[in-house]
Amino acid sequence: MAPHERGLRSQSTLGGHPVHPMLVPFPIAFLVGALASDLAFWGTSDPFWARASAWLIAGGLAMGLVAAVFGLIDFLFIRRVRALSAAWYHFLGNGTALLISLWNGARRMDDAAGAVLPLGIILSALVTVILLFTGWYGGELAYKHKIGAVDGLPTGLDAAPGAAGSYVADDDAPPYGGREAQARAEAERDAQQHG
Predict the structure, then answer these.
(1) More exposed terminus of the chain, fewer Cβ within 10 Å: N or C?
(2) Cα angle, residue 84 at apex, residues 78 and 85 outer, rounded to 5°
């Protein structure tokens, strides 16, 4: 992304803040927690940890699906997102993590303790590795490509770099969270034009 391009607002916001980044910590915590409780079961053989893993996987799936809906809205309705390889890696990787978690959780429904070793712990570890990978790309979307930026341009099917209202020069772009800087820059431009 060129330095002069502004971010794009999320299609789904709550109080002006993008919803997807508000939700993703929950499935990440639950699914990584499932690996931790699998490891605890492996070390202690206490069935409590096997049941905890099953519940954490269920919670991770539920919250992951909710977060996925809001991420998918931005993926489908912001053209610039679909043009980024990071978005595809993030999208496909998270979908894969949810499918593996569904399989991992389904295996635990009848016998949580019996499903942990060895395959359950391997699947939990694989999901954790995938989440590290997709989290990296999610961060790249937010911080490098400014997708979901609160002070970004309006989005929609026709929102794209160079659209009306985007910055055209590097010195026009405000710093992160720069609503005040943007207002000052606009005031200075107006003063130069009229004075």
Answers:
(1) C
(2) 140
